[in-house]
# Entry
Amino acid sequence: MKAFYAEEQKRHDPKAVLSRGIAKPHPEKPARVERLLAGALSAGLSVERSKDRGLGPITAVHTPEYLDFLEHVFARWQRLEGASAEVIPNIHPIARKGPYPASVVGQAGYHMADAACPISTETWSSALWSAWSAVEAAEAVMAGAPSAYALCRPPGHHAFADVAGGFCFINNAAVAAQALRSSAARVVILDVDLHHGNGTQGIFYARPDVLTVSLHVDPMRFYPFFWGHADERGEGAGLGYNLNLPLPLKSGDAAFLEGLATAFRRIRAFAPEALVVALGLDAFEGDPFGGLSVTTLGFSRIGEAIAGLGLPTVIVQEGGYLCDALGDNLAAFLTGFGGKQP
# Structure
């Protein structure tokens, strides 16, 4: 299996995240890349540099208004007297149906869901290269590879069509799925991150051509709180094309695999022609977020189970934060998946 990555993805280096009202060191650090690369190499993957694929694959799932904001907001923010070193919103609209603000402060609140996605001078470039890695992996699968891995960093599954959030700016899994649609009539996104992929759900919520399925910790008491509940089934033409499988806090391997079995029944009923796995490794028992209790062996079994679907598969990296086992967990998933490829 090939892995795709570009060094520019490391340049985004957020300094702080607001958590429970306190500024803390940001957990989505460039050092994650070295651990993930080591894991990919340990699993026998060959790493190729991603190419500049332009804005076309990205505008297919994100609005031009939002992309214009992402590209230029940092320079605009720096012209504000007394502005912070990073773009961090301090006001958010209760509803987004009113006028679009001219002020960069208002636009930051409009386009950023929370204070977990600070924007600095390298954020736009890193997010682009992360998305292009997803495009490269999708192109490899469309060219005949049974699977490919996109080492996407920054991650993407909390990014909506026009909103950043939860460390995410461009929705890499959505970009990959949309790219796959050029050769696959039906694509499924299976999100196995600790957190619900609310942005991915939002992008495809009214569409019947992309099935979105997510296993994650119950959001009643965990980020993203307002999305990821079992009664969210889609809307309009997409009603019945979204499945959320929230798991109780601290659930381990057995509960996760049981949830996967439910997910697979829905996936098979959809008869997809391609699969995107939004791979979060933060469900690990030793991850700093501590929401679930999946073991390293559990990730191998998850990878093996997903490979059993027998679908052309793009694996897109989402969460998984700095801990000693981060690289080992990726290697376990990829090895488990590779052992069952058709």
